[in-house]
Amino acid sequence: MDFGRTSKAYRVRTEIEAILDRLGEGDQVPPERELAARFEVARETVRQALRELLVQGRIRRQGRGTVVSRPKMVQPLSLRSYTEGAIGLGRRPGRLLVGWDDIPADPETAAALDISTGSTVMHLERVLLADDEKVGLESTYLTPARFGALRTTYDPTTSLYAAIRASGVVFGSAVERIETVLASPREAALLECTTALPMILLHRRTIDAEGVPIERVRALYRGDRMAFETQLRE
Asked: Most exposed among 9, 66, 89, 125, judged by the fewest C-beta atoms under 10 Å?
């Protein structure tokens, strides 16, 4: 490894971060040529630093230039719906329906919902929005035996948890696994990003107060726009 080159790139990135700290959301970031001259480095070194800051969500492309991004949306890990979480952070939630189909349950989905592999499940796929920005792609799997009425009563652009609660179901608990992945070409296209952008992947199995499965969820979030937090107690 070329430690000299690595140190130079890191120094440039930290210097640019200091510039960003003095700017506001939407302000223009100085162009590559100006930054290279200021720090006396090659433009490729500046370009590398800007790519890293883009992935971190500190900056975003706007037209032919680069501007300061708004802070990431920090979503609590809880049994609140995405809608409740977004509103609590002062953001405007929204959803775009991608598909709502009946599909055969694969072994993982079947195990999560306590049904037989191959049984029919409802698959609801939606793009999640925050202030009209695409931040995530959510797939929810439900059993039609329990939630089939939602096909005719539920608006998929609204909160699913609110609809489930309105049906009389009481949420009990959930097990959630979080990992980092890269998006597939299809997922990247739906979220309007590249396949090189790190993603946060959440797998959730939710049960009701009686221990009966409610849902299996696979949610993919843009790593440059979302973060998650939880409170830990002994």
From this structure: 89
